[in-house]
Design goal:
Length: about 120
C-alpha cells in the first residue's frame, strides 16, 4: 500500500511540477534565470517544511507525501541541468545567482515552513 501511495504521490508531484514550471516559465520569458524550476523548488521546500513541522505520526503518510509528492515536485536534477546550461553558455554570473537563489531560497523556505508549524 505504501509503495503504491508513493507512486501516486510522486506522479501527482511530478505532474504539478511540470505544469507549474511551464506556466511560470511562460510568464517569465526573457528573464535571464530559469524562474520556473527555481520557484517550484522553493515552493516545494516550503511545503515540505510545513509538512515536516506537522510531525505526522503515520509513517506511510509521511512517505507518500514527503518522499512521493514533494520528492517528485522538487527537482535537483533539472536544477543541475539548468545550471550547467548557464555555465556552458558562459553565463557565469547568472549560474552563480541561480545556485545561490535555489539553495538559499530553498533552505530558507523549508525553515520558514517548519517554524510556522511549531
Amino acid at each position: 500500500m505504501t509503495l503504491a501511495g508513493i507512486f501516486i504521490g510522486g506522479g501527482l508531484g511530478a505532474m504539478l511540477r511540470f505544469w507549474l514550471g511551464n506556466v511560470i516559465t511562460a510568464k517569465t520569458k526573457g528573464l535571464s534565470l530559469p524562474i520556473g524550476i527555481l520557484t517550484v523548488n522553493i515552493l516545494g521546500a516550503l511545503g515540505l517544511g510545513i509538512f515536516t513541522g506537522l510531525h505526522v505520526a503515520n509513517a506511510s503518510v509521511s512517505l507518500i507525501i514527503g518522499t512521493g509528492f514533494f520528492g517528485a515536485f522538487t527537482t535537483f536534477s533539472t536544477f543541475s541541468v539548468e545550471t550547467i546550461q548557464l555555465l556552458m553558455a558562459k553565463r557565469v554570473k547568472e549560474s552563480i545567482l541561480y545556485i545561490v537563489l535555489t539553495l538559499c531560497g530553498s533552505l530558507f523556505a523549508f525553515w520558514c515552513g517548519w517554524t510556522i508549524t511549531i
